[in-house]
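During the no-cost extension, the postdoctoral fellow (Dr. R.K.) reprocessed legacy sequence entries with the updated structure-token encoder. One reprocessed record is reproduced below for audit purposes.
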Amino acid sequence: MSDTRVTDWTIPGSDGQPIYGNTHWPTEQARGALICCHGFKGYKDYGFLPMLCEQAALQGLVAMRFNFSHSGMTNNTETFERPDLFEKDRWGRQIEDLQYVFENDKRIATLPRVVFGHSRGGVTGTLFAGRIKPPSLVGMINAAAPDYACKMDDLVRDQIRAEGRLLSPSGRTGQKLYVGLDWLEEIERDPDLFDPILAATKVDCPMLILHGDQDETVPLDCAHNLHQSATPNSEKAIIEGANHVFNCPNPMPVDTPTDQCTPQTRELIQRSVDFALSYCKKARD
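Re-encoded structure tokens follow.
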């Protein structure tokens, strides 16, 4: 069972919409903080995120997971309760949300921090790290992250312009979700500003890039490209046999024994926690 304490919180995010979060607190003096960003159609309780935060807290890190304000998700994990917000989401909103989370809790204000992002959450984290550059950010972890902000071809772009939105149903809940035109227009106004490859060249802190060699959603080449573009102290680890979610079921209870996880999930969590601990320690020494 857990030896850590988990608290729930809600803060205003982009456009005043709520960000729902959970913080896992270590029982000992905190060594640093890990802030976790979910991916597209993901949420703070998805798959390995609760266990990652729990394991981080057990090893002395304050670990935070949250729903982006326009993810459409609340604390109800069964459905997208706010599909209207999902349609209004865009990269700028997510970067803004991450900054709110980064700066909100004064109890971690003096702690070195590492951002973890899964899939599109990794893009958000990289854009944040390359653009905002908070001094307390000492590490960035990308797990199965794309090296692009938009992969729509011209036909799909024309469709979203004509209809004002693009159908993107949820395979998990069966709901009809839509990507709004604002998302595309934001990228097209300034493509360089939302290019994770360019952002990676501007990230000052160490980066850990994790990817599965069986990822069916985001090509493995993305990991190689991000690694080549990142700072000289970028690390890359390809996890053998891992798919896009690192072979983790959803949901997975936070108190699942680690020996009951798949080897790929265990490796993802262990590498992430070790990296965060290492660079938080270096920042404090």
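Residues 42 and 203 are 25 Å apart (CA to CA). The radius of gyration is 18 Å. The remaining legacy entries will be reprocessed before the final report is submitted.
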